[in-house]
Design goal:
With 464 residues, this protein is mainly alpha-helical. 59% of the residues lie in helices and 5% in strands. It has a two-stranded antiparallel ribbon. A two-stranded parallel sheet has the order 3-4. Bound molecules: arginine (ARG).
Amino acid sequence: MTKNKNNRAIWNTRIKKNISNLYQDIGSSIDIDKRLYKEDIAGSKAHVEMLFKQKIISFKVKNKIIYGLDKIEKEITKKKFIFNKKYEDIHMNIEKRLFEVIGDEAGYIHTARSRNDQVITDFKIWIKNATLEMEMNLTKIMKSILKIAEKNVEVIMPGFTHLKNAQAVSFGHYLMAYVEMFNRDKKRFINNLENLSESPLGVSALTGTSFNIDRNYTSKKLGFKNPTNNSIDTVSDRDFVLDYLFSTSVCAMHISRIAEELIIWNSDAFSLVKLNDKIVTGSSIMPQKKNPDLLEYLRGKSGSIYGDLFGMFTIMKGLPLSYFKDLQDDKKFVFSAHDTIINCLKLLDEIIKHISPNRKKMLELANMGHITATDFADYLVKNFSMSFREAYKKTSSLVNLAEKSGKKLEELNINQLKKIQPRLSEDALKVFNLKNSVNSKKSFGGTSFGNVKKMISKYKKKLK
Ligand code: ARG
C-alpha cells in the first residue's frame, strides 16, 4: 500500500497517537477474518446499491464504489492484495484500499452502517454457506454408510449394552444407526438457518440510523428473509455462532463415538472389523503393529471442537449488550471448528469405505453370552400365556443351568428345557437360532433383515 494520508487508522482524526505496536499486532484480526472478504464485498455492494436507491448517494459515487470493490475482490482472489495488520480487520483493509483505488469518494461507503452490523452480516452469510457445506458432507457420509450397510444386512453380530453381549443384530442395522445420527446432525444444522435468515445490515453501531435506509432491500439482495427487529440485540447477538458451534460439537461427538466403537471392534480382543492398510499406521518400534491412528484422530478432535464451543460460551457469559471487542474471537472459533469438522467428516468417509466386518468373529462372539435368552423368554410368554416377569425368571434359571453345565443355550437338550416348562417341545429350540432371533425383531425400527432393507431403500431414495 502506498504511503499517503490514508496510511493511518481511520479514527486517527481524533486519536493523535499511533496505537501501541504490540496491540496493533496481537489485537488485529485480519489474519483470521480475511476469510470473509467475499461476504464483506457482497455486503458493501448491496449497501451502496441501497444508498443510491434511497437517494443517499449519487449514481456516480455508487458506480465508482462498485467498480473499486470489484477490483479489490479480484486483487484478493488473485492473492495480489496486501493485508495490513495496521487496519485491524477485513472491513478496514477493504475500506482503506478503496480510498487508494477510487479516491475520496470511498468515504461514502460507510454511510449508515458500522463495522458492528457489517461484521455480523458477513459472518451470518458465511455461516449460512458453511451450513450448506456441512449438509453436503453429511449427505455424502450417509451415502457411504448406506453402501456398506446394504452389503451387510445379513451379517449377524452381537449388539451390546454396557459393552456386554446383549442381543443379536444385523451389522447393517448397526451401521444404519450411524445414518440416523448424521441425519439428525443435518436437521440440526438446517434448523439453524431460521436465525441465520435475518439480516443485521443497517442496525449500524447499535441504534439504527437517521438515514432513510431500506433494510428490506439489502436483506433480500443478500439472500436473507427479513431484517432483524432490534438494533441493540442485533449487534450483541452471537446465538447463531453458538448454534453453529453446538451443532458442530454434536456432530463431532457422533464421529467420536463411532471412532471409539470402531477402535474397540478393531482391537485384537474383539477383532470384529478389519481396517484396510490405507487407514492404519505402523509403529516405529513394533514391526507387527497396525494402529488405528486415523480413528483416534477422529475421536480426539471432538476435544478441540468442544473447546471452540466453550470458548464462545465463556466470552458471552455476563457480557453486557451491545458490541465489545471480546466478540472478535467468534470467527476464530467458528473457522477452527468448521475446518476441523469438515476434515473429520471427509476422513470418516474414507475410513467407512475401507472397513470390513470379520463375519466369522462376529458370529462367534454372537454365539457367546447366551444372547438369545430374551428370545426364549418371549417364546414362553407367547406360547404359555405367561407374564413376561414369570418368563424372565424361568429363563434366568435356564441360563444358570446352561452356565453350570458349561453349555450354550442351543446345546441344551429338550429334557433340560422341560425342567423349566414341562410342556416345551423341540419347536422351542428354534428361538436359539441367531438368524431367527434377528429376523423376529420385526417391530418398526427393529433389526430384522426385511426392516433394515426397507430402511436402506427409504434413505437411498431420500438422499438421491
Ligand atoms: N473486527 C471486529 C470484530 O470482528 C469488527 C467489529 C468492530 N467494531 C468495533 N466497534 N470495534 O469484532
